[in-house]
Write a structure and sequence with these properties.
ATP-binding protein, nucleotide-binding, alpha+beta, five-stranded antiparallel β-sheet, Heat Shock Protein 90, about 30% helix, Anti-sigma-factor_SerPK
Amino acid sequence: MDDSGGPRPLALALAADVPPLVRVRRWAADALADLTDEELGDCMLVVTELVANAYDHGCVPRSVRLHRSDDPCCVHIEVDDGSVVEPTLGRSRLGPQRGRGLVIVDNLSKDWGTIRHEDGKTVWAQVPCGAPSLRSVPV
């Protein structure tokens, strides 16, 4: 249980060098297997974009967490990284052909934002869903 009395989020520590997107997507897909195809697709895109951004723009350590609330149903996705630089919607320091990831997150999420920490930040998004509860998936 977390401090609010709800179930603890599922967490996955991420490697320092290469983004393990296939591993993250499999882990998230297993945890969210009872969602509809559309809901799962939305969650997978958001998870992928947030993790990719943590590798492109953030510093180590990195981790990803999933938590589902049931009333109303929503998948809360959090990705931590070691950079204090806030993400900017539609802009990337990596060039003009980049910067669409947060636009995707913004379009698929009912809300998203950042929480600054002394040693980095958490970028989070809430994706609406309609299924009951998150399954425990081994890491």
